[in-house]
Design goal:
Layout (H helix, E strand, L loop, with lengths): L16 H8 L13 H13 L4 H34 L1
């Protein structure tokens, strides 16, 4: 039988990328980013698009959001690599 789920104590019962990533693919962190979670990303995006922030603030917000999305993408790639290796063993 093929296992369809992965559980790890480091998940703390959660399935969020912010919990799964350090448990399975350590070495990546959102700690140094200006945007560290999805809630903050949504709020910053809405403020930049619909708010009255100066252009430089908007530019910085979009740069911060690109960094956050880049980390999410890299995190998913690392998790895929880790899970693929577990499945092959």
């Amino acid at each position: 039988m093929i296992a369809t789920h992965v559980q790890h104590p480091g998940f703390h019962g959660r399935t969020s990328l912010k919990y799964v990533l350090p448990a399975l693919a350590g070495g990546l962190s959102y700690a140094d980013l200006a945007v560290r979670d999805g809630q903050a990303a949504m709020q910053r995006y809405q403020a930049a698009v619909y708010g009255t922030a100066p252009e430089e603030t908007r530019r910085q917000t979009f740069a911060d959001l690109r960094a956050y999305c880049s980390m999410d993408t890299l995190a998913l790639v690392r998790l895929l690599e880790t899970l693929s290796a577990l499945a092959a063993s």
